[in-house]
Design goal:
159 residues; 7 strands
Length: 159
């Protein structure tokens, strides 16, 4: 039996180590938490993505009394971007989450379903998407969604 060691790169830094463009994206994600409709979980997630043309699109989680009918912040942002700007790849996506006490301590990381969707978008445009995940303690950064979803299922998995 062999062991397959995967090389996954996740950087960790403080806000003051980031460039202005990344700070701006995190700021938009933070503001987007105000648009979350999280009546049931009281977990307010904001996402902001930057398209290839520089435009920023935001998203926030939207909940429903029938739980599965709601949607995560990442997918509201990504689907809105694709519906409105289908020819634009996504360069970077920032993610922030607050609870009723404010910004959470550890960086929020995308749920499994969102990782699958983000990877699909990366594949669609054949362009890596950086993901910045922000919490009080710092920022995780990956340069590609592939680093969030090893052994993934994509188009080529069906060949
Ligand atoms: N949520 C997101 O918006 N993004 C994630 O990646 C994790 C979970 C939302 C879904 C739900 O509205 C709330 O957080 C609690 O799970």
């Amino acid at each position: 039996m062999k062991t397959i060691n995967l090389n996954i790169a996740i950087r960790y830094c403080q806000l003051d180590e980031l460039t202005g463009a990344d700070l701006e994206l995190i700021d938009h994600a933070m503001k987007a938490t105000d648009n979350a409709y999280a009546e049931y979980s009281h977990f307010y997630v904001g996402a902001a993505l930057r398209l290839a043309n520089g435009r920023i699109v935001i998203g926030a989680n939207q909940e429903n009394a029938a739980f599965p009918s709601g949607l995560c912040a990442e997918r509201t942002a990504v689907f809105s971007a694709q519906a409105n700007f289908p020819d634009q790849s996504i360069e970077s996506l920032a993610l922030v989450a607050c609870n009723d006490n404010g910004l959470i301590d550890n960086p929020v990381t995308p749920c499994g379903a969102c990782r699958q969707v983000l990877l699909g978008v990366e594949e669609r445009y054949a362009h890596p998407m950086r993901v910045l995940m922000y919490g009080k303690s710092g920022v995780y950064i990956v340069d590609s969604v592939k680093d969030l979803l090893p052994l993934s299922f994509v188009d080529s998995s069906m060949k």
